[in-house]
Amino acid sequence: MERYSRQIMLPEIGEEGQKKLAQASVLIVGLGGLGCPVALYLTGAGVGRIGLCDNDTVSINNLQRQILYSEESEGVSKTTIARHRLSELSSHTRFDLWTKGLTTANAEEIISEYDLVIDCTDNHATRYLIDDTCLRLGKNWIYGAIEDYEGRVAVFGRNGYSYYDLYPEKELLSKSTQATGGVIGPLPGVIGSIQAAEAIKLICGFGDNLTGKLLLFNIKDLTLKTLKL
Description:
This protein is of the alpha/beta class. It has one domain (about 1-229): NAD(P)-binding Rossmann-like Domain (Rossmann fold), CATH 3.40.50. It is about 35% helix and about 20% strand. Helix 4 links the parallel strand 2 (about 50-55) and strand 3 (about 95-100). Helix 3 (about 35-45) packs parallel to helix 9. The longest helix has 19 residues, at about 185-205. The radius of gyration is 17 Å and the shape is globular. The termini are far apart.
């Protein structure tokens, strides 16, 4: 417990909350700009089992914001590099690699194994797939997105709120390609950190989370808004 002493000092967590984290399982879908800080902070917090789901390899243009990787990682599977780096941080955490990514063929099988899902992807189609599957299985999931200078976070799932409520144009948006716009490196770090904090709060059962809300953060103007869905 000494490893997590600064976290256990918080009365909302304590030893009981730390045990909940150790017993929890979280699936991270996407190991890019958002997935890297999420994976680092949840590993550091002591989450017992983490699923790493991504079918991509490391590219040199990832390194400006994807903090798990190095120049030597170029061309290597993101899940492989992520597991190596995260295992150095915590030998107590079990890491599952899902190297084919999340698809309609495997989504239910993969998601059913975890308590909580964190969306760190960059396209609507995968988010709708996560949303549909989590609703069907009765699981919560944490949505995160970045675009230009703005980031968004919300909690959907068994609470009755869905991604479809936020973006009802499912058929149209599912056809859109993944994000290719610019992004300042620290933005996904901020949004990923918020996603990780929401996960810890949900697992330990404390605080006011983003269920039924949409958090909007603009790093250029340093504005923060929380809207009700």
